[in-house]
Amino acid sequence: MPDLLLELRSEEIPARMQRKAAGDLRKLVTDALVDAGLTYEGAKEYWTPRRLTLDIRGLNARSADIREERKGPRTDANEKAIEGFLRGAGLSSISEAHVHSDPKKGDFYVAHIVKPGRGAEEIIAEVMPGIVRDFPWPKSMRWGAASARPGALRWVRPLQSIVCLFGSETEETRVVAFEVDGIAAGNVTFGHRFHAPEAFTVRRFDDYVAQLEKAKVILDAERRKQIIAADAANVAFANGLELVEDEGLLEEVSGLVEWPQVLMGTFEEEFLAIPSEIIRLTIKTNQKCFVTRAPGEEKLSNRFVLVSNIEAKDGGKEIVHGNGKVVRARLSDAKHFWTRDQGDLPDLETLKPSAEKFGLDLARPLDQRMAKLDALNVTFHAKLGSQGERVARIRTLAAALAKATGADPTLTDRAVVLAKADLRTEAVGEFPELQGIMGRKYALLQGEAPAVAEAIEDHYKPQGPSDRVPTDPVAVTVALADKLDTLVGFWAIDEKPTGSKDPYALRRAALGVIRILLERGIRLPLLTVASDLDLLSFFHDRLKVYLRDLGARHDLIDAVLTPDADDLLMVARRVEALTAFITSEDGQNLLAGTKRATQLLAAEEKKGTTIAAAVSAHLFRLDAERALFAAVEVAARDAAAAVAGEDFRSAMEALSKLRAPVDTFFDDVLVNDEDPAIRANRLALLKMIRTATGAVADFSKISG
Predict the structure, then answer these.
(1) Which of 51, 84, 115 marks a domain boundary?
(2) Is the separation of the CB atoms in 204 and 169 below 8 Å?
């Protein structure tokens, strides 16, 4: 079966867009081909800074014929109806129609229509111009003289050539002819911009890849990443160092080069006095270079690894020299930020009111930055006030939370008032991603307690499902207070997530609260700090997602999670216990015994049948009633005691003993007795079962 090779070559595509763009190209092309009636065996996308490539294998040579039947009027219909049928079906005369018989409706005309399939090349040529024109780039541009023309092609960078070849391995491939804004598809492409700028002709994918490599272009981005990672590690090892791995940077750099050449540069050792995080970000952000360190050490070395797109004749000396000049200049700026952040601000007198408000010591640099943050009235959100006002709210909330977390209240308060101070440091102004990290360093430099410094760094955590959760009680408390203030505040101003939109990362904040509570084993009734039931429902939704990701069954979560359940740790422990118990023999007994009772009760409640307010023993007529009543009293008492001790498995075991008396009850007793009082009493007995089991879970929601 034939294959399709497609290449769209342009000026440099931003690295952050390449992977998605290649995936978009694969989806758009394959979807269009399938919609047109073609099938294929496999498709794989590739990308470099200057090209998007698609390799589709096993594509049908043509689409299948389409056969359909179109029902027409009865054979005795008037001439006008028959003429309309002929026009709609594309028939020249009624003799081309078939007559079908229906016992009830009589004879009627049917047109058997055959739409012949089309060649794959015709289909490709038809769909490709639209795909290219409407390609979903986040940003695009027009260029050249044609850009002034209405409807001119837009692309991320000027599109230079298109390769589109079709054919099987046993035949000569053919160019699929189409044109987009004067760019005609062909079989010619170009290699590396500097090393191999000459055009060359390609035939099929394997030939294309091989010729590109001769022309100093490695097509496969994953292979470029492997080359860069291996060569960078090797050059570091050769210098007695190890590479500080950075997957995000590796992905970006592999999208900046077509022919990666790994080199090593240096900078002055005096810059190593700057924190490693600042050095790493400076070199990464400005020059897209990797940093190194001595094996087993945290502190960085003064050597960095860069990746060039040119195989230089001088071995890369000039490239290394040029990169080194820029790195040194940027590190010089960073050293300036680091030094200034440890000094006094020039306007300390104006900061005294803010210092008094938060109990700050203006002899300390970080305290000065917090006072400055408050004095400048820096806005957190237009409807939620300034950063200073927010810190004041978090301060109050953290004081209450410390009782649940067991954190030292004095250290907690100190951590809260300094947590946002580094937002006014020059280091964080240059590198916002260092929020918290720089706060911790400056806190330690001015002699803060280790728990305070740790809380300043960790109060943003966890920032995602793979991020770690704070461990120290002070850090846990400040992190909870920070996230809960965010959620309560945005709920109060009705700025909630809608659909896929969540501009304030409120889902992430809620998940952070959930992970902290569950992973650190904290009992916190959320309604005491977030009285909004709508917000509690939002926590429930996030908790369901979190527990399902851990493998919990949705029906077991629903059985445990009541609308007013605000102790999420207890919900999670109930789900865990129920998950472990429900598949056991006792669990099956519990499920069978309770479901039979609660389902009958629910049916009678729906009918409006009278149910006694309490069970009256003197109305019992059969031993089975008395035995069940006694069993329920014992099971309810034992289960309640186990729940009070948070031993949910024992509670379920106690309730599972109801299976035998429930079965006997239903075998021997007619619940819907003719005597209304007896019927109401027996239903009250079933209600006792539901109440007792409800202390553990709503078993009616469990499947099976």
Answers:
(1) 115
(2) yes
Residue pLDDT, tens place only, 161-212: 999 999 988 889 999 999 999 999 999 999 999 999 999 999 999 999 999 9
Q: Based on the domain organization, do 187 and 329 belong to the same domain?
A: no
551 domain-assigned: no
Dihedrals phi, psi of 463, to nearest 5 degrees: -100, 10
Boundary residue ending a domain (341, 362, 377): 341
Domain total of the chain: 5
Residue 507 and residue 380 in one domain = yes
Is residue 544 a part of any domain in this protein?
no
Name the token pair of 174.
Answer: 């053919």
Other Cβ atoms closer than 10 A to 375: 20
The number of helices, as runs of H, and strands, as runs of E, in the chain is 25, 18
Output the pTM of the full model.
0.79
Going by C-alpha positions, the residue among 630, 633, 608 that lies closest to residue 683 is: 608
Lowest-pLDDT range of 100-104, 232-236, 292-296: 100-104
CA distances in angstroms from 174 to 39, 45, 85, 188, 682, listed in the order given: 19, 21, 42, 12, 83
Contacts of 351 (CB under 8 A, 6+ apart): 345, 362, 368, 371, 372, 375
For a pLDDT cut of 90, what percent of the chain falls above it? 79
The verdict on 261 and 391 lying in the same domain is: no
Residues 273 and 304 in one domain: yes
Half-sphere exposure of 457 toward its Cβ, with a 13 Å CA cutoff? 19
Residue type, 385: G
Q: Are residues 301 and 361 both part of a single domain?
A: no
Please tell me the number of Cα atoms within 13 Å of 48 on its side-chain side.
27
32 and 125 assigned to the same domain = yes
- In which band, very low, low, confident or very high, does the pLDDT at 704 lie, cut at 50, 70 and 90? low
Tell me 618's DSSP state: G
Distant-in-sequence, close-in-space partners of 202: CB < 8 Å, separation ≥ 6? 5, 163, 165, 187, 188, 189, 208, 211
Same structural domain, 312 and 444 = no
How many Å apart are CA 691 and CA 632, to the nearest integer? 10
d(CA 486, CA 380): 10
The answer to whether position 631 is within a domain reads: yes
**pLDDT tens digits for range 314-352:** 999 999 999 999 999 999 999 999 999 999 999 999 999
CA distance 13 to 11: 6
Q: What is the pLDDT of residues 441-500, one digit of tens each?
A: 999 999 999 999 999 999 999 998 889 999 999 999 999 999 999 999 999 999 999 888
* Chain Cα centroid distance, residue 391: 29
Domain presence at residue 638: yes
Which residue segment(s) compose the domain that 105 sits in?
66-115
Q: Please give the order of strands across the beta sheet that includes 66-74.
A: 66-74, 106-115, 98-102
Q: Rounded CA gap, 260 and 218, in Å?
A: 9
pLDDT averaged over the chain? 93
Give yes or no: residues 183 and 209 share one domain: yes
